[in-house]
Design a protein that fits this description.
- It is a single chain.
- The chain is built from 13 helices and 53 strands.
- By secondary structure, it is of the alpha+beta class.
- A nine-stranded antiparallel beta sheet has the order 5-6-7-8-9-10-26-15-12, with no helix packed on it. It has an eight-stranded antiparallel beta sheet with strand order 1-2-3-4-27-14-13-11. An eight-stranded parallel beta sheet has the order 36-35-34-31-30-29-28-37.
- Strand 6 and strand 7 form a beta hairpin.
């Protein structure tokens, strides 16, 4: 057997020499790709599949990393590819793309018809042992929009030329995956802090700001329990640290900026950068990230007044920028000895993200109840308070499926998943009552443990200089899950709110973890926490789908049954607007499930937000909450939350309660649509929430739109983000559109001004769509004999697959589900109803009732579907 293997390798080597001997450098071919020995650098290029290429460059003599690959799950596939050579170019071809390896080391990517996708450039590309960044790879950025990279609070939609620090922080999530309108994506495979488009220039200031370093003031609330964020906030420095200068651009065009505010982050303060009075960066909340991005069009030769305010920082701060002709996409990481990335090709962003999920894993389905309403607040203080509010929600007939216990349910003086018997005397009985109300309980647990008894019992090793468990240690990871399961899942808790998974509390990043230096692996901490929870719970409770909520994320995390939320944001119109762009770029980074605190976390003067005096009575805050609630209705996960707040909808006046109730009821009416779209997320790697550019990448008008998005395949949501805004300009891409509220057909496309009364947000439906609408229910799985309305929006042929399963288990992975396929003919005005995959419902015994309606046609038809193909003719 050994001899035979040697013989085969010898034949492969002879074949290689015959087809690549012309190339300037030595080349080795193996089963999955090639290796090029170019001077002091070895370039490995693997064909993962027809659309995915893995490139790794390393210096001769460097040792390969021992850090595990936490992200990719796809091994190189057995696909057809070949390599050809000239003296200056190696050409690798698959059925989907062409890779050109030039003698100067630059790699170019093309479509099969020779269309240019993207090319490396040697400018800003390096491997070094010196400097702040050890590895860097640059690509040429052309006429394109770039999206993804995670969640950031800049309000920016298109990342082309924009500098960003990819670093986990409360409110910011680093996912090093980028997708282009040109039909490619780049996954940068490095776990250390990474600068994207590191700026090449700095604005020097003529005036000098002052900083005042004050000891953080601790605030002990009534009762003596240091329970809240206020305990750790510092009073704003008296000195505002404001500097200004004059800036004269040398080029006309869009300048992109990066403000370095602080080296280690801080709590409280304000950072603004204004150019001639126009704020390009404006941020003020409790948790202040370290770096902020902005952009603005400037004219060459014109003098601009630049004002930089950096209140509360420990350093004066710096303002960097890239010029309009930067035109590069650059990943530069602080640790590592290899350039390591994956190039992913596809016809459009949808195909690229689908291939990316082939590489990094697909998102499993959540239980149907997870797509309902989540009642959450900071916080329910004891068992009876939580139950009282759950009962009142049911009595008031406000639909919801989930209620959440935030932190400080644990014994005083500790932190960790242990119930305080003084406040929660019988968690089992509490969960039993919630179950009787058809409710699920989620509980907040941190990967930070300050409980000696728990630490000893579960042998929880921590990362040095912190209270965060060393989740990189597989044994610690398993025992961390066991601790949560014993205290939560075995009492009937259905899901865990994994807070603080950045993690923010590792004060000394120079320490080691079980797999190596923390600095080399710090960004995927959340990925490993969610992995521990998903794998542990699936093994222990195999018939229950995993749902966890977490404050951070990383590439590949979609496969671990987790949703991320946008962190502790402040209630303001600016932050509402920023959440939309943040969420859209998060989902474009390949992770489909995301949410946010409806109404903001910091809400009013009692909630560390001086902008509003009283959240329950302030008219502007209630309007902000209304618009935020409308946005939340069409977010992948629908969840309200607030700090030191009672977030139940009846507490904000009758007008808000009525509007919120209407939107909650609409969410539940849309559940047949949402659940069927969620099936596409799992089966086809679709996005449940996506920017317009996801479906219309060739329409440049969509590239910067950040207040409109698609909810599922067919609903376009237009969000109102200004106070007292009663009209709004929206953009309709080419096609036929219908007003969701009135069914009115909208002719043409382009910009359109629409009315935005406070009790509505503009929604448009694509012509050629089919939307199933269910009956009103109080919880997602409530059984009813009322029919599902099938609304057909004409304009072109349409098809929709309505999906059914048991709503809870993983049996769908074995094709234990049923589909009903609705097909509409625009020409004949007929609707066919037939079975798709049918392994779950016996339609003869359980016939399905539908009312069919074509928008614009006054007739409706009732269909009782018993599994036999049916056709309805609306012309006769």
């Amino acid at each position: 057997m050994i001899k035979k293997r040697i013989c085969v390798l010898g034949v492969a080597f002879i074949f290689l020499m015959s087809c690549t001997s012309e190339f300037k450098y030595q080349v080795e071919k193996n089963q999955n790709g090639i290796r090029v020995y170019r001077d002091s650098t070895i370039i490995n290029i693997d064909v993962v599949n027809e659309s995915i290429i893995h490139v790794k460059k390393i210096k001769v003599g460097s040792e390969p990393t021992t850090i595990p690959d936490y992200v990719t799950v796809l091994e190189p596939q057995n696909v057809a590819w070949d390599v050809k050579a000239t003296e200056d170019v190696l050409t690798i071809s698959t059925n989907a793309l062409t890779v050109l390896v030039n003698a100067d080391g630059v790699i170019e990517y093309q479509t099969k018809d020779d269309g240019k996708l993207v090319s490396e450039t040697n400018e800003l590309t390096y491997l070094t042992e010196n400097g702040d960044h050890k590895v860097s790879q640059a690509f040429v950025a052309g006429d394109e929009g770039l999206y993804g990279l995670g969640q950031y609070q800049s309000g920016i939609m298109n990342w082309k030329n924009v500098p960003i620090r990819l670093q986990q922080y409360n409110q910011e999530i680093a996912i090093p995956f980028l997708v282009s309108t040109k039909g490619y994506g780049i996954y940068w495979h490095n776990y250390s802090l990474t600068d994207f488009n590191q700026p090449q220039n700095e604005i020097e200031f003529e005036t000098t700001g002052e900083i005042e370093i004050k000891k953080e003031e601790q605030v002990i609330p009534e009762g003596g329990e240091k329970e809240n964020v206020a305990a750790y906030t510092a009073k704003e420095a008296k000195k505002k640290n404001i500097r200004e200068t004059t800036f004269i651009p040398t080029q006309s065009g869009e300048y992109t900026f990066l403000a370095l505010s602080d080296h280690n982050g801080r709590m409280r303060g304000q950072i603004t950068v204004s150019i001639d009075g126009d704020d390009i960066i404006n941020y003020s909340t409790i948790w202040m990230p370290r770096r902020y991005s902005g952009k603005k069009h400037l004219e060459a030769g014109k003098s601009y007044k630049v004002v930089f305010q950096n209140t509360g920082a420990k350093i004066p701060g710096n303002l960097f920028y890239n010029k309009p002709d930067y035109n590069k996409t650059v990943f530069s990481s602080t640790k590592g000895n290899a350039i390591d990335y994956y190039l992913i090709a596809g016809e459009n962003p949808e195909e690229v993200i689908s291939q990316y999920q082939n590489l990094t894993g697909k998102a499993p389905m959540f239980a149907k109840s997870a797509y309902g309403f989540w009642q959450c607040r900071e916080r329910y203080h004891n068992q009876e308070e939580l139950l009282e509010n759950a009962r009142e929600m049911r009595e008031k007939k406000i639909p919801f499926d989930n209620i959440v216990q935030d932190w400080f349910y644990w014994p005083k003086g500790t932190k960790g998943p242990e119930w305080d018997p003084a406040k929660y005397p019988d968690p089992d009985a509490m969960v039993d009552e919630l179950t009787s109300l058809n409710l699920n309980l989620m509980v907040s647990v941190w990967p930070e443990v300050k409980n000696k008894a728990l630490e000893k019992k579960y042998n929880l090793k921590k990362i040095e200089s912190s209270n965060y468990v060393d989740i990189y240690d597989e044994g610690v990871s398993e025992r961390f899950y066991r601790m949560l399961s014993d205290s939560m899942f075995h009492k009937g808790v259905k899901s865990i709110w994994l807070d603080g998974t950045e993690p923010e509390g590792v004060n000394n990043t120079k320490v080691n973890t079980a797999v190596g230096p923390y600095e080399s692996v710090q960004n995927p901490y959340s990925l490993l926490v969610t992995k521990a929870m998903y794998e542990g719970r699936r093994e222990e409770f195999p018939m229950e789908r995993v749902f966890n909520l977490t404050r951070s994320a990383y590439a590949g995390q979609q496969r671990y049954g987790a949703t991320s939320w946008s962190g502790d944001v402040e209630a303001s119109w600016e932050q509402l607007s920023e959440q939309i762009a943040a969420g859209l770029n998060f989902t474009m980074a390949g992770i489909p499930y995301w949410t946010h605190d409806i109404g903001g976390f910091f809400r009013d003067s009692k909630s560390i937000n001086p902008e509003f005096d009283n959240q329950y009575t302030n008219p502007e805050y209630i309007e902000l909450l209304t618009r935020w609630f409308q946005f939340g209705t069409f977010s992948p996960i629908f969840r309200i939350h607030g700090y030191v707040s009672e977030t139940e909808i009846w507490r904000y006046g009758k007008e808000f309660e009525a509007t919120a109730r209407n939107f909650i009821e609409l969410r539940y009416e849309l559940l047949p649509y949402i659940y069927s779209e969620a099936r596409k997320v799992t089966a086809d790697s679709k996005l449940l929430m996506a920017p317009l550019v996801y479906q219309y990448p060739n329409d440049k008008n969509t590239w910067g739109i950040k207040d409109q998005f698609f909810f599922g395949e067919s609903l376009m949501i237009c969000n109102v983000t200004e106070y007292k805004q009663r009209t709004k300009e929206v953009y309709l891409p080419e096609g036929v559109w219908f007003d969701f509220w009135t069914d009115e057909k909208v002719e043409g496309h382009g910009k359109l001004t629409v009315n935005t009364p406070l009790d509505k947000t503009p929604i448009f439906v694509k012509g050629g769509s089919i939307i199933p609408l269910g009956p009103k229910v109080q919880y997602a799985t409530q059984k009813t004999d009322d029919p599902i309305v099938i609304k057909i929006y004409p304009g072109k042929d349409a098809e929709y697959v309505l999906y059914f399963d048991d709503n809870e288990s993983y049996n769908y992975e074995k094709e234990t589900y049923s589909e009903i396929v609705f097909t509409y003919s625009e020409e004949n005005k007929t609707i066919k109803v037939k079975k798709g995959i049918d392994n779950y419902i016996n339609f003869e015994d359980l016939p399905q009732h539908f009312i069919l309606q074509i928008v614009g046609n006054s007739n409706t038809e009732e269909v009782v579907f018993e599994g036999v193909e049916t056709e309805v003719d609306f012309l006769n």
